[in-house]
Each structure stands twice: as C-alpha cells, then as structure tokens.
Specification:
- The chain is mainly α.
- The chain folds into 2 domains: 162 residues, Lysozyme (Orthogonal Bundle); 58 residues.
- The protein is 44% helix and 5% strand.
- Strands 1-2 form a two-stranded antiparallel sheet.
- Helix 1 crosses helix 4, helix 2 packs across helix 7 and helix 8 packs across helix 9.
- It is globular.
Length: 244
C-alpha cells in the first residue's frame, strides 16, 4: 500500500527523530499516552515555527489565550508556544484536565480540535460517553482517527511507501543551557559573545521573538547554545529514536 502525499509527511518523519526524544519523556512523566506525540504531528507537521491563519503557534498550535491559560508566556519578546519543552508540558496540562472530565483519550483528542466546552456539551446532549459515538463536524469527527493513522504510518513508513534511510533523519543538536535571569539589551550581541550567530540562537530558541529582552520581573529563561562543532552534521548523534 502506498500513500501519495506532499513532502509534509516525509518532513514529519524526519523531524520526529529530533523532537520526539524531547517530547516523549514529558508525556511519560505526565502519564499521557505516547500516541499523543502524533497529535502534534497532525497539528503542525512538527514544524517548530508553525503559525496558522487562526493565529495558533508552535508544534502544539496553541492560540494565545489558551497558551496563557495553561501557563505559557506570550508577548512581543517571548512566545513560549515555540518552546518545545514548555509547550509540551502545557499540552499535557490540557490533556490531563480533559481526561479528568471525559475519562477516555478519544474524547480528549476530539476536544483538542473542537474545544472542551463543545465536546462536553455534545456528550451531554447526545447521551453518550465517548467522542467516537458523537455526531460532530467532519473535521472533529475525523480528528482522533487522523492521529491514529499518523501513528500507524510513522511507526512503519515503509509499509506505506515511504523509504527513508537513517542518514536522512533530522538529528538533535548538543547544546549548553545558559540561564538568563535579567534583561538582554541585544540578543545578536549576546549570541556573538557565546560563539554563535543570532540566526543560530533563534533556530535553537524560537521562543525568542525580538532582538532584546526587557524582563522587568527577573524571570529565568533557559537558552540553548549549540556546543562548538555541534552544528556540523557529522558530529551529531546518529541514533534513530523509536517510540516505546
């Protein structure tokens, strides 16, 4: 069987090798099934810079009000929807709250697409307990099945016509973590002082949204700084991540 698709599916498979090793432990620590990794694939194709017409941002495609509700900072200078670790933790907070409400994961998935209030109202009005039994819009009805289909494809891509060698996969970049607890007048100058370019700084820290950081409250930020030589592909880990 072969699925004809755009390059987005190939990109998702390649990106998963870089991002899933960061996301999976956060899901596990929060007792969220690893199947929810594939919800992020459906949302953003694992594009850290993803931004939709509905103003949803990052891998988990949070809109600003929901992001703030679940503990993320969203401002002109900092947007933690683009912070992989923090956004994944925020998504877990959403999933746990929804699971407390519904008691099944398919309804949690549907609510991520259709909204918690809407799914709750429809479950009550249609006298059922699972989103699988709801009459909803086509998009929301299909959503949990899209997540599961994405899981099947990405766990065994060759069965669906995707032949990708391990050297084509994206690789993690080994970074030092530098804490910043005050203002930064000039991020490009800060990057240069740490031996990297502003472009490299933004690539590893897409949550930085401006060339300066006011930080009047003294919040602590963890900034990823690639180690010397870490951006050279031959120096990057060649391991292939498997979801377990």
């Amino acid at each position: 069987m072969c699925i004809r698709d755009s390059g987005n599916t190939l990109l998702a498979i390649k990106r998963a090798n870089k991002y899933f090793p960061v996301m999976a432990p956060i899901l596990k620590a929060n007792n969220i099934p690893l199947d929810f990794l594939y919800l992020a694939v459906v949302e953003s194709t694992l594009n850290q810079r993803a931004y939709s017409g509905a103003k949803a941002a990052g891998l988990w495609q949070f809109i600003a009000p929901t992001a703030k509700q679940y503990g993320l900072e969203v401002s002109d200078e900092v947007d933690e929807r683009y912070n992989l670790e923090k956004a994944t933790a925020a998504a877990c907070r959403y999933f746990k709250k929804a699971y407390e409400k519904y008691g099944n994961w398919e309804s949690v998935m549907a609510s991520y697409n259709g909204g918690m209030s809407r799914i709750s109202n429809e479950l009550d009005k249609q006298y059922v307990n699972s989103a699988f039994d709801l009459y909803l819009t086509d998009e929301t009805s299909r959503y949990p099945f899209r997540v599961m289909a994405q899981k099947l494809l990405m766990e065994n891509p060759e069965a669906y016509g995707y032949k990708i060698s391990s050297d084509q996969l994206y690789r993690p970049v080994d970074c030092d973590i530098v804490t910043v607890s005050g203002p930064v007048e000039d991020w490009p100058a800060w990057a240069k002082q740490h031996g990297i370019t502003f472009a490299q700084l933004r690539e590893e820290n897409p949550w930085i949204r401006a060339k300066s950081l006011t930080n009047k409250v003294g919040k602590t930020y963890k900034v990823r700084v690639p180690k010397k030589g870490a951006l050279i592909r031959d120096n990057q880990p060649k391991t292939v991540f498997k979801v377990k």
